[in-house]
TrEMBL record:
Catalytic reactions on record: 2 Fe(2+) + NADP(+) + H(+) = 2 Fe(3+) + NADPH; 2 Cu(+) + NADP(+) + H(+) = 2 Cu(2+) + NADPH
Subcellular location: Endosome membrane
Domain named Ferric oxidoreductase: residues: 259-401
Organism encoding this protein: Smutsornis africanus
Any one GO CC term of the record: endosome membrane
Lineage: superkingdom: Eukaryota
Endoplasmic reticulum listed as a keyword: no
GO BP annotations listed: copper ion import; iron ion transport
Name of this chain's protein: STEA3 Metalloreductase
Keyword Transport applies: yes
Signal peptide: none
Residue intervals passing through the bilayer: 211-229, 259-281, 302-323, 356-376, 388-408, 428-450
Amino acid sequence: MSGGDMAKPLLGHQITEGDPSIAPAAGRTIGVLGSGDFARSLAIRLVCSGFKVVVGSRNPKRKAGLFPSAAEVTFQVEAVKKTDVIFVAVFREHYSTLCGLADLLAGKILVDVSNNTEINHHKESNAEYLASLFPACTVVKGFNVVSAWTLQSGARDGNKQVLICSNNQEAKRTVAEIAQAMGFTPVDMGCMSSACEIENIPLRLLPAWKIPIFLALGLFLCFFTYNLVRQVIHPYIREQKNKFYKIPVEVVNTTLPCVAYVMLSLVYLPGVLAACSQLYYGTKYRRFPDWLDQWLQHRKQIGLLSFFCAALHAVYSLCLPMRRSHRYQLIETAIKQAVEKKMNIWVEEEVWRMEIYISVGIIALGLLSLLAISSLPSIANSLNWREFSFIQSTLGFIALVISTLHTLTYGWSRAFDENQYKFYLPPTYTLTLLVPCAVILAKVVFNLPCIQQRLLRIRRGWEKGRYVKFVLPSATGEYSSGETSSNV
Ligand code: NAP
């Protein structure tokens, strides 16, 4: 599965809350084999959801105190006898120790909740292995994507989806009922061959973040090297000045806003490219190339990383005056002025420039925070489509424009000062402006009435050069049909 796939809803057919074929399950007795973290959380959750719970342990006396008093903690044999649905909350390597219970378990539903420590660790999935050990049982894979913590804290605080698969529809439905009664959303993943995929899900490390993180790191590296050459290497080579102390704070702090600003523009650039493609081909039904699809799917992560860099830039900037080097420079400047008997060093233009760029920067950061907060699932779910689109699209674009103002007021006239071209390299801010300005310009062009109208028509299904059937009423009141080009 590609990284972008994780941005999609977690697969398959959701057995939704409104499904009338799912009968209420609460009240029935559920068995749990094992008395560890998962078994304990599961038992608490089942009891809270109205189930009777019987826990099977090798040492019930010792473990009983860890469970809610409503749950019965007994020997494995006793627990298995009392129920038809049993959660196996035991690690795969201990499945074989349960083989002595095989006769008692025959005909019952076993829910395999186990996870592995590595992706595709074993040839067959844990659930298939369990099924091979207990051929007279019906095995259902499920609940492994839910942590013990989520089970205890409630579905609202964690992932609500419970992925389920089994070769037996009836058993799958029974487990889905239980999941639903516990407040989770059961998702039917099909037959047992999906178990391996379900077991791999909790082991994936930020699959949707890989591309955005590499992008951010790549940009950081490029801008860092560029700034290092301009701010440290150039003075060292040309003036033999040691400015290496600037690397940890100043160079990083001039790099972070570059990354944040370019990343923010990269959130909106794929939308521009998609619109260009739709305008060029005159249809919205043509698939975008894969790279553009992937890019569109990663916009949220790219935006959040942009916010992260912007927030770091704000903290770094606030800390600049705390540095000892800064204090030395201030004192040095003051001494120089005293020696030169300069009384007034106030430069009105510089004062205004700084006041404006700081204020504009704060507003941009505020807007980025709003975008980041509204992309959290709990907030995004509480917004309707128009509200979400207004925040992410309109406010996001305004954030890009304000960030551009921040960059321009920071740079001011430096681009026209030849002293700023170190080794003929232009000031960094001029480079960062390229992509964002192109995006802003494209957005302005798309808002021209003639282009906006065409784009709107395309997005409502109109296609260039495609003939559409029309039906006209004739003078006699009858209808006549014909064909015309929708281009006309
Ligand atoms: P755990 O705390 O180590 O508990 C495992 C339990 O297995 C023990 O308490 C033990 O209970 C029982 N067991 C039965 N036969 C055993 C044997 N021969 N040797 C050792 N223990 C034996 O582990 P856990 O975190 O609850 O995880 C249990 C299962 O849930 C695992 O398959 C895990 O992958 C899965 N899971 C856990 C989480 C989580 O957040 N913890 C999340 C998803 C899935 P008795 O001593 O009472 O028999």
